[in-house]
Amino acid sequence: MEMEYRETNRRGKAIIVMGLLLAILAGGAAFFVINQAQQSAGQGSLQTVDVVVAKRDIPARKPIEPDDLAVRAVPLDATNGQGVVSKPDELIGRVLAVTVLKDQLVTTNLIASAAGGGGFSILEPNETVSPDSEAWRAVSLTIPDDRAVGGLLQAGQTIDVFVTATVNVPQDLLLAGLYYTDRSTKITYQDLVILARSGSFYIVRASIAVSEEVAHLQASGNSLFSAVLRPEQDVRIVDATRLGSTTNLIITKYGLPIPETYPAGGGPIATLAPIEASPSPSAGPSVSPAP
Q1: Peptide bond preceding 285: is omega within 30 degrees of 0, i.e. cis?
Q2: What would the pLDDT profile of 151-160 be if each residue is shown by its tens digit?
């Protein structure tokens, strides 16, 4: 009897333990299911907002194009509650003060604040005006495509500008036989940022002194501008004291052959005898002259 009692007691304890374990497992499963349901319900109630993002990297100072932007619906939270734009049309043609990376929100605080009439910024990002700061201006240069890297230049790029001017030599120097009137070309303005472009008009950032010179050269009608593109990484200013080109300097530097008089000695060139015209078919049969 005692053995049977002990065996029954052990079985009862085992059943109780198993029951407790099952109850714990059931409680945990119920908690997990309820928690998941609450999270799903919470996510379904989040408010979303349409925002404009960058479809690709957009460089600073480059006017925004339609293909630069995309619209996405994102949950509304503290990171996108202010400054967001929901319609791409509000940003087309605007200029960014900083580079915006792909998939980044394009917010209103990224737009250049010191904007001119064409939607460009004269000042650099975070640049301010102080009593000692440079007096920057926006000035236009007229450069046809054949002298502007094939017309491929865009806003945001930096260029160097060559000036080709006609140098009028005084009469006394002409008589001396050393100089003559001709065009002369030299790199004149370096590291100019293109703020905007409209056809062959390039709006560049320059100091007020350079802007004055450009305005005079264009108004005089005696000068032509040519633009060359600088690498983005090259911010050096080239020493131009020994630069400058004329036709004779190029002939001398590269040894171009000088045309000679032909034939030698300046004699007359023998010409071929004129070719007699054939009689017209409608003139009728030819008549031999009388002896």
Answers
A1: no
A2: 999 988 999 9
